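This protein record is not my work; I was only asked to verify it. Would you go through it and say whether the fold makes sense for this chain? Here is the record exactly as it was handed to me.
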Amino acid sequence: MIPLELTDGETKFDRAEAPLSIFLEWAERARTENSQQRLYVAQAPLNRLPKPMQDDLPTPELVTRTGKGDVYDASIWLGVAPTYTPLHRDPNPNLYLQLAGRKVIRLLEPDAGQAVFDGVQVALGSKVSSRFRGEEMMKGREKTLLEASIWSSNTTQEGEKIEGFEETLDAGQSMFIPEGWWHSVKSVGTGCTGSVSPPTFDFIRMQLSVTSTTRGSVRGLVVTPTPRANSALQPTPSDLFRSSYNE
């Protein structure tokens, strides 16, 4: 049994545990049918997938050879484009790997994302915690306002310009999302899309130095890991984001 999300237009959203076969049968029909009803495998633990699928997703060497090699969690997302995940933040740092299809990720620093979220809550006349998000962000006016701010107007409810980053991930590409950074994700194109977040592990709990860089008109971030002294694998700095979507 895996977690499945059902959406139907802008107002209906349900979440339930169901066999993977339910999603696979729907995905086959969705290739030829034009329907607003969508199914999405959302953050399904890898250890709940059939054994052959688990074997296709081994723990990365980066995890097993770095730090203590502690494995905390690993999840997979499966759908048929278009898919959409509203603006939110995760409680832990996150490595995000694209397995199939293409996704666009828009990423905001903690203060910028909080400002967008707070503005939407004021517009709704609501007071909810940004740390505990439920189905309210998946339907209705909150979903509409969040999507408009991040993907259409690029402004807060107060009309202030949102500064953030955008990256397009094709199959085989990945990105690192620092702890507390807000992000919203859309799949583009057609066909099946799949993403995986490998185990949360000791490596990304190391100290990270995040610095801003400017190269011509392109803004980006460089994340420099500070490995443990006993690490057998010494990561090197990597450019994570190639473009800023508010430019």
